[in-house]
From TrEMBL:
GO terms for molecular function: 5-carboxymethyl-2-hydroxymuconate delta-isomerase activity; 5-oxopent-3-ene-1,2,5-tricarboxylate decarboxylase activity; metal ion binding. Pfam families: FAA_hydrolase. Keywords: Isomerase, Metal-binding. PANTHER family: 4-HYDROXYPHENYLACETATE CATABOLISM PROTEIN (PTHR11820:SF114), ACYLPYRUVASE (PTHR11820). The keyword Metal-binding applies. InterPro entries: Fumarylacetoacetase-like_C, Fumarylacetoacetase_C_sf, HPA_isomer/decarb_N. This is 4-hydroxyphenylacetate isomerase. The lineage of its organism: Bacteria, Bacillati, Bacillota, Bacilli, Bacillales. The keyword Lipoprotein does not apply. Residues 48-252 form the Fumarylacetoacetase-like C-terminal domain.
């Protein structure tokens, strides 16, 4: 079955509409059919990416004890947000650079909710009216334990946010709160989760965040990263699959080897 997607191909400036058959791994553009691997995708989003911490039940439970310690002494009441800046963004198929001084990276498989129109103080019931579609994001991080300060150095390195390969139209996703997420490293299943484990549903998260900040058209909200993200090293191949949306694939390379961006 063909579904509508919005994609950006390498060397082509505007984002364009296409059709995909996820089962057959086919992409249709202007009536022509291509295999996914025949195309070179660029970053399909245009706005700011906002990440959400502690929104998966088990991830929250793992850190709950630390939340009662100094300086906070209590769990957060509002969503805990951070930004993946422009320098972190890379496309599907691009190389993820691992800093020379690091041995491993955490792979943060995340559902990205793409905003379709200005969203401010929206209610939970109408929240999905403000969504254009969904994409796959790998929220790459240097392993770290601190919950007391924004992990900018660990999360905001160049190339630490692969996105894509496209934006799947929201009409193709039956329920964003019931999507299985699988992460394979070198073909081996290393993580399986589901958005039914979110503390705040997609709708609730959008309502709570837009209560105090406006999301603009093109912005992307990550609903969270499941507990125990797989750790990888140089030369590992990463395959993140989210049901009804597609597959995001990238390979880890040292910073020196990643010059040029793709294998």
């Amino acid at each position: 079955m063909l579904q509508t997607v919005y994609m950006k191909l390498s060397g082509i400036q505007p984002i364009q509409e296409g059709k995909v058959n996820l089962n057959e791994q086919e992409v249709w553009i202007d009536g022509n059919s291509y295999r996914n691997k025949e195309l070179s995708f660029d970053i399909p989003i245009t706005g700011t990416i906002y990440g959400t911490l502690l929104n998966y039940r088990n991830a929250y439970t793992q850190l709950k004890e630390a939340m009662y310690q100094e300086p906070y002494q209590a769990p957060p009441q509002a969503p805990v947000l951070y930004i993946k800046p422009q320098n972190t963004l890379i496309a599907a198929g691009s190389l993820i650079p691992i800093p020379e001084e690091e041995q491993e990276l955490d792979m943060g498989a995340a559902l990205g909710v793409v905003i379709g129109k200005t969203a401010s103080k929206i209610d939970e019931f109408h929240a999905l009216d403000f969504v254009e579609g969904y994409t796959i994001v790998n929220d790459v991080s240097i392993p770290h334990d601190s919950v007391y300060r924004p992990p900018v150095k660990e999360k905001a390195r160049d190339g630490f946010c692969p996105v894509g390969p496209w934006i799947m139209s929201k009409t193709a996703v039956h329920n964003p709160n019931e999507l299985e997420i699988r992460v394979l490293v070198n073909g081996e299943l290393r993580q399986k989760s589901n958005t039914n484990q979110l503390i705040r549903s997609v709708e609730k998260l959008l309502a709570d965040i837009t209560e105090f900040m406006t999301l603009a058209k093109g912005d992307v909200l990550l609903v969270g990263v499941p507990e125990n993200p797989p750790r990888v090293k140089a030369k590992d191949h990463i395959h993140i699959e989210i049901d009804q949306i597609g597959v995001l694939e990238n390979t880890i390379a040292t910073e020196k080897a990643s010059v040029g961006g793709r294998l």
